[in-house]
Amino acid sequence: MAIEHADVMRAAHLARLGLDDNDAERYVEDLSRILEMVDRLAEVDTEGVTPLSHPLDATQPLRADEVTEADRRDTFQRIAPATADGLYLVPRVVE
Amino acid sequence: MNQGAANMQWEVVIGLEVHVQLSTRSKIFSGASTAFGAEPNRQACAVDLGLPGVLPVLNENAVAMAVRFGLAIDAEIPEYSTFERKNYFYPDLPKGYQTSQMAHPIIGRGEVEITLPDGTTRTVRIHHAHMEEDAGKSLHEDYSGMSGIDLNRAGTPLLEIVSEPDMRSAEEASAYLRALHAIVTYLGISDGNMAEGSMRCDVNISLRPRGQQTLGTRAEIKNVNSFRFVERAIAFEIERQSELLEDGGIVVQETRLYDPDSDETRAMRTKEEANDYRYFPCPDLLPLMLDEAYVEHQRSLLPELPSEKRHRFTGELGLSAYDAGVLTASRPLAEYFERVHAVCGDAKLAANWVQGDLMARLNQDGLDISESPVSAEQLGGLLSRLADDTINGKAAKQVFADLWAYKGESADEIIAARGLKQVTDSGEIEALCDRVIADNPAQVTQYREASEDKRGKMIGFFVGQVMKASRGTANPPQVNAMLKEKLDALL
Amino acid sequence: MHDRTLAELARGLAGGEFTSRELTAALLERIERIDPALNSFISVTGEQALNAAERADSARQQGKAGALAGLPLAYKDIFCTEGVRTSAGSRMLDNFIAPYSATVVDKLERAGLVSLGKTNMDEFAMGSSNENSWYGPVKNPWNSELVPGGSSGGSAAAVAAGLVPAALGTDTGGSIRQPAAFCGITGLKPTYGRVSRYGMIAYASSLDQAGPMARSAEDCALLLNAMAGHDPRDSTSVSRAVPDYSRELDKPLDGLRIGLPAEYFGEGLDADVEKAVREAVKVYESLGARVIDVSLPHTGMAIPAYYVIAPAEASSNLSRFDGVRFGHRCDDPASLEDLYKRSRAEGFGEEVKRRILIGTHTLSEGFFDAYYRKAQQVRRLIRQDFLDAFDKVDVLMGPAAPTTAFKLGAKADPVQMYLQDIYTIAVNLAGIPGISIPAGLVGGNHPTDHRPVGLQILGPHFGEAHLLNVAHVYQQATDWHQRRPPVEGQA
């Protein structure tokens, strides 16, 4: 399936990646070639084949409902770009 | 145009998505505490913050709670369920995706019985219920032009319960929400505290001409957080949509917010871009397998559920559907009633007092049933004395007031101290009656001259006088009968 | 000391030939001297290393030292190390001081290993040449015009150059085995789930696996003993007993059934590489093994399937790098969207963006079934190919890469670069273990013309002990693993 400028811009927006038009052009080219390679998947007959999400047929282990994590806010916020009063700061959120 | 007229022409179709915070101690995928009210980000651990390299591990109690909910609504519990990632960017969503369930939710189809205010019941079908993690909170107070993000809530386990579009009025939607609230609080899987956001509701609502099968375009009202607001928001939305449709307009599929202050819904200001959540199986979580033994074990842990209680109350106890509905609305209330009943032995008397005097005082003082100054045992003791004619109704109210004001340990103690024991000795009552008849010759004459149909009313005067003379302790039916006999003898 | 194996160094430490502090200081000095030309380290943690070495020495004096105490190693900069920058080779994390340590780091630290620092890598493990690092490319110690392979190129180069006797890598599509082959060292990718992923910055969660890179299979066994096992913090780590990987290293190979997949010797395979691999197989035959021709019919579909699944998972895994809680944040964001878009555009390099875009696109509405679902179906077929093959043979053998190390800048086209992983990538999709061992030097007669060839050996799920045995017996019979590159100061 071909990929177009608009598809790249849409993916970039969904992924919140800032791209200018020149970047986008380059990605259209790269991504087209990658998808062309990927499109070979269509040659495989997968009728009735269950998709495989995990390489092992294992099942989910469960954790006991216990509080095991201590408050480490100060450590965690030392590496944060912007905080105040224990909150992470971001440009104003509008609903 | 008014709502009544709108309803004549349009059928309202409502479906609810209810998010219930499960009352686990730790989060769904991490060992951080879920306690409410901590300082910002003090309960956000590395996993909740989505630090590079962290991984989720599922909380066994969240699973158990979800399964118990499924059993309570008689739902299918699939052996196999999976977790998916719902991808979108928002500052209160640390990983850039919410771990949720989509393809194979933990709870399949089920049903919830709802009771309407007139006592009739209906069934609302549940499409499915799935587990997911809650997001954090954005605080919009001004931090020099910035918003603050608190991730304490991030990772709190949620059970999202998705109904079929089976409700046809605001009343039904509200009754459904109350029924869910009752179920989750009975099960003890959530505190159901709507004000703290433990139960949040998205309402999908559309209108269609009566008789039409296909559904109209729906609006989704996000995050309505009280029973009353659900009713108000739906009422507003019905009016808005019917006006639009009648003016030849169309309803736009959109997300709206209910503003309780203006009592209206408004479209959210977010740009109307098509969301594309790119769901895919979460590679960090494996399929959850629940075998029959596990499900049966969870079943053995179920308490008596609200609908079961309701049926027992109307059947075994002979209560009206309405009373049974009110009394089973919450587990603490139902249990309170049952303890009162166990002590006094009279279900109807217990029902009347719990719903009447007790609820009135609780409401007046803004108290929850669990905070009642009068214990179920105390009220039961009081009602026992009423039932065995030790006291009459008037005295009972006095005893109740004293118990409420902590002026006594038990009804018996107050009755004794205040001399409220009802006079049932017929000799004593006869003496009182004779004295009242002798003291009121004018009224006796009037009685004798009155037509038979008026006499019934006139006897009230004499009863009042006797009660007064006994300081309220005489047994009113006994007084009534005695006076009638004596006065009629004078005819 | 710098060209000894871990096992030899362990004997030196145990015998009192040198202390861990002496060894550590010598290697730190060597790194300082040699690494500026190689660029194999992103961070060298000399002070911490010397402290850890002293702790190991004093533990030894008190008779409390374990088998691995005091041995130096390095971590690919994708493993979180508390208090030390963990960059994943990205500008995005250039300022990220990890606030916690990965489970494997914890385990190895507890075993007394001494970390010399963090090795260079392709950004977020995306690459096959180590040219995609924010910290610049790594040079191959055999020839500075050549790439070391990727994405664990720094680890491979550092071990080959005698800067550290062993290092950890991660392998998502060949990132341990291909650089091990290009640099002439031994690198093991364990079965998916054998080693905890907690604290390893995720690229593609259902494919990523950590493993040892060292100078011998014996050393890989020593490290795997300390690394493997279930981690309660990683749901995908397997709870299955960990064997002693050193115990059966010497088991004779009589009757070993070696499968040679036809698809691994086809078009695109460099003639020199094929020759070296076939000679290695002959050595095995002389050791009592039997060769059987097998087929892995879906081999050609592994790269297409991988470039759907890995970017899809990556696009979601990398959403957490949003400039809010850690990592790079753009200057003066004008809005939330600006914060996201600029921080991510500035923080991520070209290849990472390419894969995020591919993954986002293939997961989006309308494309999911044709790409993601299809790729997962093909993934099952690829795994089945291996399961079928292991019904007939004990191990599979073939080249680790179609060529020897290529020149820096030689593969500017992304698809050409992706084809590097043709023999390694299916292994990750199937989750089976694989090891690459040195099996020849090809090229001209001058030492700087020598290019190592890697023999790849694959086994069934959890067959690491056998793989290490098969590799070790070969290393007892040959000396390719003892050849050292002509690094300065070698003579």
Automatic annotation (TrEMBL), chain A:
Matching Gene3D superfamilies: Glu-tRNAGln amidotransferase C subunit, N-terminal domain
E.C. number: 6.3.5.-
Swiss-Prot/TrEMBL catalytic activity: L-aspartyl-tRNA(Asn) + L-glutamine + ATP + H2O = L-asparaginyl-tRNA(Asn) + L-glutamate + ADP + phosphate + 2 H(+); L-glutamyl-tRNA(Gln) + L-glutamine + ATP + H2O = L-glutaminyl-tRNA(Gln) + L-glutamate + ADP + phosphate + H(+)
Record keywords, A-Z: ATP-binding, Ligase, Nucleotide-binding, Protein biosynthesis
InterPro entries in the record: Asp/Glu-ADT_sf_sub_c (IPR036113), GatC (IPR003837)
Quaternary structure annotation from Swiss-Prot or TrEMBL: Heterotrimer of A, B and C subunits.
Family note: Belongs to the GatC family.
Function: Allows the formation of correctly charged Asn-tRNA(Asn) or Gln-tRNA(Gln) through the transamidation of misacylated Asp-tRNA(Asn) or Glu-tRNA(Gln) in organisms which lack either or both of asparaginyl-tRNA or glutaminyl-tRNA synthetases. The reaction takes place in the presence of glutamine and ATP through an activated phospho-Asp-tRNA(Asn) or phospho-Glu-tRNA(Gln).
Name this protein carries in UniProt: Aspartyl/glutamyl-tRNA(Asn/Gln) amidotransferase subunit C
Organism (species): Kushneria aurantia
Lineage: Bacteria, Pseudomonadati, Pseudomonadota, Gammaproteobacteria, Oceanospirillales
Gene responsible for this protein: gatC
TrEMBL record, chain C:
SUPFAM superfamilies in UniProt: Amidase signature (AS) enzymes (SSF75304)
Keyword line: ATP-binding, Ligase, Nucleotide-binding, Protein biosynthesis
Gene3D superfamilies in the cross-refs: Amidase signature (AS) domain (3.90.1300.10)
Pfam families the UniProt entry points to: Amidase
Leading EC class: ligase
EC number: 6.3.5.7
InterPro entries, per the entry: Amidase, Amidase_CS, Amidase_dom, AS_sf, GatA
PANTHER family (alphabetical): GLUTAMYL-TRNA(GLN) AMIDOTRANSFERASE SUBUNIT A (PTHR11895:SF151), TRANSAMIDASE (PTHR11895)
Record note on quaternary structure: Heterotrimer of A, B and C subunits.
Function: Allows the formation of correctly charged Gln-tRNA(Gln) through the transamidation of misacylated Glu-tRNA(Gln) in organisms which lack glutaminyl-tRNA synthetase. The reaction takes place in the presence of glutamine and ATP through an activated gamma-phospho-Glu-tRNA(Gln).
Protein name in the entry: Glutamyl-tRNA(Gln) amidotransferase subunit A
Source species of the chain: Kushneria aurantia
Lineage, opening ranks: Bacteria, Pseudomonadati, Pseudomonadota, Gammaproteobacteria, Oceanospirillales
Gene: gatA
